[in-house]
Amino acid sequence: MTALIEDCARITREHLQKAAEKNDNIDAKQFFGNFSLDTIARCAFGTNLDSYSDQTNAFVSKAREAFGQDLNLRFILFFLFPGLFKLLKIKPFNSDVFQFFKSLSVNIIKQRQEKDNRKEDFLQLMMDAQEGNLAAPIENTKTREDELYNLGDDEKTVQFSSDKTVTEDEAMAQCVLFFLAGQD
């Protein structure tokens, strides 16, 4: 995933350079929020965004809607009065927004399964966990000196199966949680 983050950082740098060349003022919170959003979209969902240039993209607009001004107030009220929320059947999140991200995840999973297309992202990890097939790095007995001077060495991976799997709902919840944690 490092390469994915580096690519998002490169795109961010290019947009920052363009703004500097034009002597434009930028809103730092929104600018780096775009970086976070692009990085999360790429690392979690395998989706390439350019939220700096395309604010009308459905992913971008739903993310902005999810983290609108009333979200903090809703969270505070939900944690202070959870019984009231349950009694009034109010959800702490906008269900349309989270339904969008769930259906997006489901569609991406279907496309990957139909085309046998693998990507190295969080969603793929969840798919592998659902199937019970995960790969883990083989433990190397490197010396401390080798670790310091051979940083670019590729680790070998070993495939293993597990009896424990992740349900579809658990996988979707993890993706939404990944999104929430990164965007906050």
Automatic annotation (TrEMBL):
The keyword Endoplasmic reticulum applies. It is found in: Endoplasmic reticulum membrane; Microsome membrane. It is a peripheral membrane protein. One of its GO terms (cellular component) is endoplasmic reticulum membrane. Keywords: Endoplasmic reticulum, Heme, Iron, Membrane, Metal-binding, Microsome, Monooxygenase, Oxidoreductase. GO terms for molecular function: heme binding; iron ion binding; oxidoreductase activity, acting on paired donors, with incorporation or reduction of molecular oxygen, reduced flavin or flavoprotein as one donor, and incorporation of one atom of oxygen. Its main location: endoplasmic reticulum. The keyword Metal-binding applies. Its cofactor is heme. Pfam families: p450. Belongs to the cytochrome P450 family. This is Putative cytochrome p450 cyp3/cyp5/cyp6/cyp9 subfamily protein. The lineage of its organism: Eukaryota, Metazoa, Ecdysozoa, Arthropoda, Chelicerata.
